[in-house]
Protein 1
Amino acid sequence: MDMTYLLDVANHTGVVTRISLVFRRHGANLHSLSTAKTEHAAIVRIVVTADLERRAADRIKGQLAKLIDVFRVDMVAHEEGTFRAFGMMKIACTLQTRPQILQLVEIFRGRVLELTPEWVLVEITGTPEELEGLLQILQPYGVLEAVSTGPVVIRRNSTRQPKRAPEWELVTNPAAVNANSSSIATQERKRYGTDLL
Amino acid sequence: MTGAEIVWQCLEREGVHTVFGYPGGAILPTYDALRHSSIRHVLVRHEQGASHMADGYARATGEVGVAIATSGPGATNLVTGIATAMLDSSPVVCITGQVGSKFIGTDAFQEIDITGITMPITKHNYMVTDIDDLTRTLREAFIIARSGRPGPVLVDITKDVQQASCEFAWEEAGPQLRKLETWDAPDPAQLAEAAHLINTSERPVILAGHGVLLSGSLEELRTLAEVGDIPVALTLLGIGALPHFHPLCLGMMGMHGEAWVNHAIQRADLLIALGMRFDDRVTGKLDSYAPHAKKIHIDIDASEMHKNVRADVPIVGDLKQILKEMLPCVRKRKHTMFRREIADSKGPNAVHDVRNLPDAGHLYTAHVIHDLWRETKGEAVIVSDVGQHQMWEAQYYHHTQPRSLITSGGLGTMGFAVPAAIGAKFGRPEAEVWVVVGDGGFQMTMSELATIIQENVKVNIAIINNGYLGMVRQWQEFFYERNYAATPLVNPDFTKIAAAYGIWTAAVSYRNDVIPTVRNAREHDGPTLIDFRVEQEDSVYPMVPAGAALHEMIRRPSAIVETAKED
């Protein structure tokens, strides 16, 4: 199943490695990974897509959320977000086929970047499916080169306030972890003694 | 103040008294500044020992253990110890030197990308290349190591940062961390649901893990068990969460748990999992694990929920707080039937038989552990290694106090025990510390005998010497047609090795000698080593084969028992 992860992460060196390691640990082959600045300088948005089974996908989500540099991680289904990717395709053409190609590009709301007698270079922005659709439809004319980015995503039901600063927060309650062990031992000794031996 | 001095200042402010380390080129400035610090530095003989000692210190005390090493091989030698701490949620901070910033990425002498190497085995790690980040980074490292589910943190500091100077501003260098407690206050609805399940179940079993000890929820666990009249099974690392002799304590569960414990779990209608993670050594085959039981899973780590076992009521958060809030809703119950059923199933088939064997010329490990337990009145801190002796220790040494068993559970690191015991002794100088270690594991880190001598640490080492890598041999016996490939060991005379270090030593081959020798070792004012030459081809029973259901156990063949009875 194609899974899309949205991560808000701290703008730190190595954060992409930390994230990709979690996927790698599960043997997941990433389809795409895009990383870019957001509206806040301290936060970077990373979008990862991978083909995963549900169980592994959930484990990965949990392990991503544990990373100290990760503020938030969501798995986003298609209906929950607006997905946009960018692609460029260089298509072989002749004088005869060129009008057809240009027409198809038009239908897909692509744009011609360069035009020569032998090929056209087009760009397209759309959902990953639209990019794939255009590529398929142009296949018969001869695809000389095709590249695309992975999707970037905005959550549809996002409730985030714009420009919100990340929540740096000092952890002040390590008390539970540091429970005084020797005092516990003393209590135990008092209660149970050694007379049971 | 130089970066090197800042390192020690930060450690002091974090409450560190003892660090374990090994110097080298890239960490030299820090070692040079040690003379201005009140912190005690313990010189190890191999950096793996340093990370295990820090781990042992952390497990014995609940405080953060600190290991220090140089760049390159010093740093890579820490790796096994870091991974061990990671798998067992032990708060450790490792500080490594790194080559100067301008040499990074040039394959400089003793340069290694240790932050890259340790990313998957640390809770978090840092490389510090700017002295202005140093104080904040060290503060963050300690917070991360000890907060939430504890774990190891590595801080790699370039040599130029150690040499550079800046104003030391502890207060101003506040940590910049996201909120680490990712859970909210316990959901009352969930607590109510959990309490309802507990109040209505007829065959409930509590599964208590390391989290009970880490969160200090001993009182709450006991109250829950006593009020609800619920038997408690322990994971290996949960041993000590409830005293062994508590009437509701079943003992260890899982692959080498007693049969009645595993049967109780398999027949339960409710499992209350507290601070444990349903490891494969605990569950056996997942498809047939506790098939009739609803599961309440309480853990601090959200990623543990549903990871191996689907929980009906998953509650994420601090165990102590959750139990405190849940307890008022738990009704007083009596599960007389269920408990009698468990008591009846103990019967004659308990492994306890072995320890009652007469002395028939064979020294069984069970004898050794049982006598060690009797002689130390169950009050020693036992640090066990990995393998057969580890399971026998868990079966025959009856722990009544928390943090009295220190062992590598998750990673199963042979060679852990000797260094971890040194760390534990530094953490709890008043405690009597015994190492229980196999002849295989002992030889992995026996270089630390020198550390024991140099620092004059009173630890007692009991080598369970059967001339085999015993647990592997056992698997070969059961599952590989007794093809003992690469498991027989040709050993040195361990008593001579101890003598070479000036360590008090003795060898024991007969049961009658166990207690007197242990007594002598205890009375000796200094470290000791006893070479227990035990039966070579004994096996740990019962055993749930890997991949089998929890109730499908291999039992001790009766032949051994009968032979012994004839004598």
Protein 2
Amino acid sequence: MALKSEVLNKIWLDRTNLEGGRSVTETCGNLYVAKESTLATPSQRILSENITRLREFFNPTSIVVIGASREPSKPGNVILRNLKKSGLSLYAVNPYAKEIAGVKCYSSVFDVPGIIDMAVIVVPSKFVIQELKKCVARRIKNIIIISSGFSEAGEEGRKAEEEARDIIKESGTKLLGPNTLGMLLPSKKIDTFFVDEYTLPRPRPGDVAFISQSGSISLAFMDFAKAHNIGLSAFVGLGNKLDIDENQLLEYFGEDEETKCILLYLETFSDGRKFAELCKEICKKKPVIVLKAGRTARGVSAAMSHTGRLSKGSDRIVDCVLKRAGVIRAYTEEDVLDYTAALSWMPPMKKGGVAIVANGGGHCVISADLIESSEDIQLRLAEIGEIQKEKIKSLLDIPISATNPIDLTAMATDDNFKTTLSVLAKTETVEGVIVELATLQGVSERMVKIVQNFFKNCGKPIIVCVPGGDSARKLAKKFEAEKIPVYPSLKRGIYAANVLLKRGMWLDRIKNFRR
Amino acid sequence: MQNKEKITQLIRSARDSDRRELTEYESKQILSLWGIPIVRTELARNVSEAVQVARKLGYPVVMKIASPEILHKSEAKGVKVGLNSESEVRQAFEQIISNATMYKKDAEIWGVTVQERIPPAREVIIGLVQDGAFGPTVMFGLGGIWVEVLKDVSFSLAPVSELDAWEMIHEIRGYPVLEGMRGEKMADLKALVDILQKIGLLAIEFKNIGEIDLNPVFAFEAGKGARVADARIILRSNGL
């Protein structure tokens, strides 16, 4: 950190020195030439320069908000208040105010003293270019443009973006946006959302990085994540991807040690080929989940051939390419949440033999149907041998058949589940378990500890389904608090478990396929 | 190396005459030079050459119009199958040429291709397309209604690794057809893997190829290989 300040100081003092900046842009232009080969290639060095640069971007120590507002409901005010919680050196630019929300205001970014690591621009779109110019002249290397009204708004906005691109060119500036929520780094409390925490509570710090091309769905996901105890290492809104795009971020979070799972909501690929190549490398280390929307709106230039016509606009290409790269594809916002919980809390499965344990016959039958008849489910019901069956039966005080799915009946108690799970933990054919609960007197919150201990002791993935309403949700929350994936429907639970298998199968293929 | 130059030459000559679409004959020459097995096909410029080729390949044969200006050969009534004798070959040649002239007056006609008829096999389609987001992408599917109606295809980015190719084949819903149904033997999947990989490499090596159709490719029983029966190569429009 000291080194970074020193460098910035030098640049700030010597305004004519552009060297540092230029080298960064030059190298960033050559990103991701890396192929499948992993370490110690020359391109690896270039990649890590990108990472170094983004690491600076995500670790600012001083921030200026340009376009701070006195009006409490305005973005320029909300953002300032949100950022204040970070405890970083915070400045505001507003030519008409002395102080906003306890933060001192300056009439221009040039008047702000000292080193500024990051600028957050919230002025109306027509003023953005002039403020951006000032920031670049002021040697602020990290910029977020929150303001909208650019390429998404029409031709004029598109031109403004071109101009902005020219302004930052060769300056070494990293720019996020425009037209973005910016970022949320829960562990550092860096938060550029223009929504206050009262309206939208933030998720806890955690290990999921979320990169998104849309604002509104991201806010919904924040709310989801908060409600379901999913913690974030970072949220980054791509906006119009003027500079920073999903590939740069993917590369960064692929290496980021705080991040164990990466989530992307994308409408367009900046460079689909690079994206696929990056995912293929990263997925060897951590799961990547992609919700790619705009499935029908893809263009393929020519279509003179049969192949061309079959491929034109085909979402099947995206499907296949993502699958080969090891990506878990989500199709709805619900999938995203479901898969994230499963993949970030449970290990993958290789073969997919699961045992279902339930305290209801209907649960068992519906699940068996889903597993056996859905084309997109590769899970299967594990064969439980006679010896294990007898063991389960002899240990329980209720008459059951112990055939998978195992129906412990409505009379089942926590202890019955515990006993059954202890046998399944040692049953080799069972690679994972799905516990399906009806909220009856027999089962209590103790189930959380029981499921947790099962996982701790044998390491097999375990997923819980509690279909129902308020009482189900109440119980489900207890599981989530302990990072046990829990689902409000049998179907969602089974699909989530299936995703663990998809990931495991991919890892296995990549590792064990002989040339 | 020499083969690469020959392929470059074939592509260049099409470019020079302002053609984006290579003829079946040219396309097959390229495939053959690239090591992809094709159904034996030769160009006959006149009747006597046609008879000669047919005798060499063995009856029955298939004959098709060879013209850079007629690419929809069936539409021009330019395809005759199951020709069993010299007289049938002679008759077919004349008919194909006259149909072609009727279809398109003044069309440049190179002659007629004569190709060996092959035993029944399972038909697949292998193709290549330049995708807007992903660049060169290889496609695989089962021939006939599987692609026509069900659009049952799978894709991989070029170059296609061996694992990618196996996955592509296994991914289509019609896979059991290749595995063999009603006592049929497994199709030669290894041979298909090889073609998929070679098509990927062809697109990587020759960047000006825009689209490829190998349709159909005949897949014989395991161990007996696969061969391309019809092929179209289309060059990219941006004068590369």
